Amino acid sequence: MNDFIPPAKPLIGDEERAAVDRVLRSGMLAQGPEVAAFEQEFAEHFGLGRACVAVNSGTSGQHLGLLSSGVKTGDEVIVPSFTFAATANSVALTGATPVFADIDADDFCLSPAAVEAAVTERTVGIMPVHLYGHPAKMDALGAVAEKNGLKVFEDAAQAHGASLNGTPVGAFGTFAMFSLYPTKNMTSGEGGMVSVEDAEVERLMRLYRNQGMEKQYHNEVVGLNNRMTDIHAAIGRVQLTKVGAWTAQRQANAAFYDANLEGVTVPPVADGAVHVYHQYTIRVPEGRDAFSAALRERFNVGSGMFYPVPNHRLAPFQVQVDLPETERAAAECLSLPVHPSLSQGDLERVVEAVNTLAKAGA
């Protein structure tokens, strides 16, 4: 049988290893000059036009961003249910309540109409997720926020380099969190980067990540240890030099699928949107789980189901809310390998596998 095609594959090369070795030899391993350089280079590379703050994970970045933006117990933040649990978790960790709204079928992102309907007197913010690397409808969501006096917080965990009408993801909200987990479009081994609009939110972010201190032993707030190490930042700095080419390859792989897949619904791209294809997600209306199993068993092709259990049905939340598009996506979505390590032969084998199964109604 042909070699297994994994659904995701971290790319770590000799340059990253050399960067880690450089930091190890320096003796400065915790938050230091590599972190500061990574923050500046990240903002410049993606054209964010605002400060960035590095932390030890994307979830930490989201949590600290919310705390620094004043979200507190008793508040509500509107979030999608069709996403990774960290989105809702970060809201709950502040003491606030995540309020789940439905997605739109075309981009798997928060529906502006559903958000508008979910606003209450306790709502303080909206947290759209740029799911799978496609930007959410930020113009319409921003209008809802402005009308209701709400803040916008971006979950850009999967969307490094995505944009909408020329504005990069990460430059719309009060803050935006980018994940640097190994399977994301770029990695620092583990970590997160937060772009911040406001200087005071940035200052608070830096306090919260470092035990509440700007000056050692002069703690201003009750903080956490959410610092990024220089080891991780050194990896991230190297990855910044590669992510542009990797993104272009992801987009080329997606274009090949778009042109050749049959019998399944391929992911549309909105006018004015740049999709960076963290995932290439098709819809399989009937028998998605069996379809995925057959890809693996018959063709040795991996796939991913993101996310089969919507957040509103997870044990920590368990709320009764009608989210029909969320439920449909959770039952139908299947992500195919799109990572830049795929060969042309791999792409052709994925297409053959999907088309064969779709034709057979597997």
Major sheet: arrangement of strands: 1-9-8-5-4-2-3
Give the proportion of residues in helices.
25-40%
The poorly predicted ranges are none
* Overall geometry: globular
Relevant CATH superfamily of the largest domain: Type I PLP-dependent aspartate aminotransferase-like (Major domain)
Give the distance, in angstroms, between the N- and C-terminal Cα atoms: 20 Å
Strand proportion? 5-15%
The beta-strand count equals 12
The CATH top-level class label of the largest domain: Alpha Beta
**What is the CATH third-level topology name of the largest domain?**
Aspartate Aminotransferase, domain 2
Order of helices and strands: HHEHEHEHEHEEEEEHHHEEHHEH
What's a quick, concise take on this entry?
The protein has twelve helices and twelve strands.
Describe this structure in words.
The protein is an alpha/beta fold. The chain folds into two domains: 14-240, Type I PLP-dependent aspartate aminotransferase-like (Major domain) (Aspartate Aminotransferase, domain 2, 3-Layer(aba) Sandwich), CATH 3.40.640.10; 243-360, Aspartate Aminotransferase, domain 1. It contains twelve helices and twelve strands. A seven-stranded mixed sheet has the order 1-9-8-5-4-2-3, with helices on both faces. Strands 7-6-10 form a three-stranded antiparallel sheet, with no helix packed on it. Strand 6 and strand 7 (167-168) form a beta hairpin. Helix 3 (58-68) runs parallel beside helix 4 and helix 3 crosses helix 7. The longest helix is centred in the last third of the chain and has 18 residues, at 243-260. The chain is globular. The two termini are 20 Å apart.
